[in-house]
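Appendix B. Chain record.
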Amino acid sequence: MSGAEEAGGGGPAAGPAGSVPAGVGVGVGVGAGPGAAAGQAAAAALGEAAGPGLPDEAGLAGARQLQLQEAAGDPDAPPKKRLRAAEAAEAAAAAAAAGSGKLEERLYSVLCCTVCLDLPKASVYQCTNGHLMCAGCFIHLLADARLKEEQATCPNCRCEISKSLCCRNLAVEKAVSELPSECGFCLRQFPRSLLERHQKEECQDRVTQCKYKRIGCPWHGPFHELTVHEAACAHPTKTGSELMEILDGMDQSHRKEMQLYNSIFSLLSFEKIGYTEVQFRPYRTDDFITRLYYETPRFTVLNQTWVLKARVNDSERNPNLSCKRTLSFQLLLKSKVTAPLECSFLLLKGPYDDVRISPVIYHFVFTNESNETDYVPLPIIDSVECNKLLAAKNINLRLFLFQIQK
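Structure tokens predicted for this chain:
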């Protein structure tokens, strides 16, 4: 989800003495359910008991535990979130019973994302009231609001959120990067900023592949067993005919990968090539059941007038209820032609955009009677990348058109 990062400043400036800085994220809670108001009221009561200044540690811990218990018992919350909330509530209760937990555990409950209740792995965004959201949840909230034609709001305080209203909290990002995290292979703890390097390069238990995988060895295992395996690997002793069978299968896979690039290079040799930047804008159908779709203004390429349309999840009635998000698009020829117009076309990401799209070439013969293609998939890597596009006010892509002349 690191692709959702934007350049931005840290949290707001500190307020007057006795106030809580918005960037600290003291009011961390969970999504809005029926008990959200009760949790906030309990937090306020505990804060008042501590005096007119900052709430004491016991007050914050009590409010946090109440909010976690409400999230764990909310039937509308996702199962994963309820499980995490239940685990966090048990940990908070255990820490309260013991008097005080470790500093890392207390910071975890303060710095975690208010939506997924997990520590952010990359960017941390905050609403105007200081509630924290990881980049993935922040983009997902914006995309869901776009699908439902609503204004996105913070799940804690219901204030409006958007890319312009929210900013990154650099102090929280740096604090999270220094918190210890457990390696998934050796179970040792490292600062989060060093964990990725440890898991990729240093951990003796990390999963590795045999160096003879190029000739078909399928072995996967811990790094400390690699030397022993390679000394006993049977693939170097295989006969030439056995190796040729393995290499033939690998060559077929490689040829499929190269076919796309060869097709693109052959298209670049065509006489008539055109490209343009296109901007999809969101609209709603006027039918009894309104659906979200996207459309570009008319544009001219290859001396012809065109329009692009796109839809979410193939016009699913309620795409906001689905975790899987896809986009498909359609190319329409708006001008009249005197002869069939055979074209190849593909959509790629626009300049200054970080969404990942795999190039796929489509072909169609346009005539006056058949002037629009079927809806074809926009080859986005996954639903996370799709949410990045949906969260934006407009979708900016680049269209390439190649006219095939016989």
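Further analysis of this model is presented in Appendix C.
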